[in-house]
Amino acid sequence: MGIPRIVIVGGGAGGLALATRLGRILGKRKRAEIVLLDRNTTHVWKPLLHELATGVLNSSMDEVDYRGHSSAHHYRYQRGSLTGVNREEQILHLAPIKDEDGEEVLPPRDLSYDYLVMALGSVSNDFGTQGVAEHCHFIDSPQQAKAFQRDMINTFLRYTDPTLRQHTQLTIGIVGGGATGVELAAELFDASRMLNAYGVTSLDDQQISVHLLEAAPRLLPALSERISQTVQTELEGMGVTVHTSTAIKEAQAHQLVTDDGDIIETDINVWAAGIQAPPFLTELGLATNKKNQIEVKSTLQSVDDEKIFALGDCASCPMGDGNYVPPRAQAAHQQAKFLAKNLINQLDGKPLQAFRYRDHGSLVSLARYDAVGNLMRSSASKGLFLEGWLARKAYASLYRMHQLSIHGAPKTGLAWLVDKLNRYLKPRMKLH
After folding, report:
1. Considering only CA atoms, which of 125, 156, 142, 171 is closest in space to residue 50?
2. Alpha helices (H) along 204-279
3. Per the CB 3.0–4.6 Å rule, which of 211, 226, 271, 388 could disulfide with 136?
């Protein structure tokens, strides 16, 4: 009988960190075969997608190639998309792989597992709002972020010819006042200044109009009111028009229609309101909630199958008092570290432990010059409030911690040095 196979579906923050840790501990010693399955060939840390969308982040510098990374960290990468699970035979069904022209490269395949970990993250939830799928950009993946960047640059170029302009000001409507919407709104003004400096457009940031719309009474409703108020003040100081208690009932090609019937004329629409797990998770025969998240025990095992685990945004994990672990990057990292220990316990025949989420605070980036948030939160304390340069440094450290978890200290140190050098050697913005 061969060694057990642990298959991790999804190479996001949690999935990649888990595959790396298990590869170092189990894969290197041949105690288990670790397989990471993802439809993409590279990984980009999801909290950076708003920077990729505006061109501030060069994905070729910050993306992780799964093939090279898997070879260095003793796990196996397979490219593919999950279409179904046969729980009785413990087999995954994978979709065919096609090239850019739609030609089949690999036929449908099966992949067996002894233990399965679902780490598929989340996607935006449009709540069935009319026109959103057709007329709004989403920023859930590198491909979507790059599509938005192409549209943004083309729209800026179009405004150099007055006959091609849609409106007197270039207007971008962002629906959703959570972290993604807030960070994208701030980044757009920085991007517009750089596009002007590089000669892409004659528009300056005074000719850019950004509308940020949130259905809740305030921005960042999941965070403290102090953070929310500070962020709104900062955004309005930049020139963002903030609409709170404003729901959207329809998106059209160049406008957003609110529930009150007001119309906001736009050139580009972005939807960043609400999240849900990928809808196909409801088709796997596992219990899921209204957000398509797999219902798990405190051990992160599915309530239906002890051989299947879930972590991160696609898992509905209880944490007492009727509350659930929030869908945040820090939760995915904590669960990845925890689940590695639990899977090792499982192989060693030891009892599984219960996950305990620790809220270390939240930070929101407001372009490259500023950030707002709090750190060192606990059940008895609101934590240390930060803003300005210090908060920005703390925000940047979150990415370094992610790099530490997947690369180790030596490579992370080198990556930091390369980033510093590139500030002097390369343009601040990727224009293609």
Report:
1. 142
2. 225-238
3. 271
Integer CA distances (angstroms), 391 to 168, 230, 238, 239, 315, in order: 36, 13, 18, 21, 29
Q: Which two tokens stand for residue 237?
A: 């100081």
- What single DSSP character describes residue 354? P
User: Rounded CA gap, 13 and 291, in Å?
Assistant: 20
Phi, then psi, of 408 in degrees rounded to 5: 90, 170
Helical (H) or strand (E) element with 160: none
Closest CA to 308 of 261, 336, 343: 343
Return d(Cα 79, Cα 98) in angstroms, integer: 11
Q: Which two tokens stand for residue 214?
A: 């949130």
Name residue, tokens 């929030």.
Answer: 326
Q: Report the distance separating Cα 8 and Cα 309, nearest Å.
A: 9
- Give the pair of three-digit tokens for residue 330: 């820090």
> Which residues, at least 6 apart from 350, have a Cβ–Cβ distance to it below 8 Å?
none
Among 338, 77, 369, CA closest to 237: 369
The C-alpha angle 342, 348, 351, rounded to 5 degrees, equals 50
CA atoms within 13 A of residue 80's CA, in its CB half-sphere: 23
Query: Mean pLDDT of residues grouped by 10 in the chain (432 residues)?
Result: 92 96 96 96 90 77 90 96 95 91 89 97 93 96 93 87 72 94 90 77 79 96 90 92 96 95 95 93 95 97 97 94 89 96 96 93 77 66 69 79 88 82 62 53
Instruction: Report the residue count for the chain.
Output: 432
Tokens 């179009």 belong to 158
Are 364 and 48 within 8 A, CB to CB?
no
Structure tokens at 38: 């993802």
Cα dist. 331→175, 177, 355, 360, 361 in Å?
A: 25, 21, 10, 10, 11
Q: Which amino acid is at 344?
A: I
- The DSSP string of 285-351 is SS-B-TT-PEEB-TTSBBSS-TTEEE-GGGEE-B-STT-B--S-HHHHHHHHHHHHHHHHHHHHTPP
Q: Which amino acid is at 44?
A: V
- Per the structure block, which two tokens stand in for 380? 């008895």
CA atoms within 13 A on the CB side of 17: 26
Report the C-alpha gap between 235 and 213 in whole angstroms: 12
Give the span between the Cα atoms of 121 and 278, in whole angstroms: 8
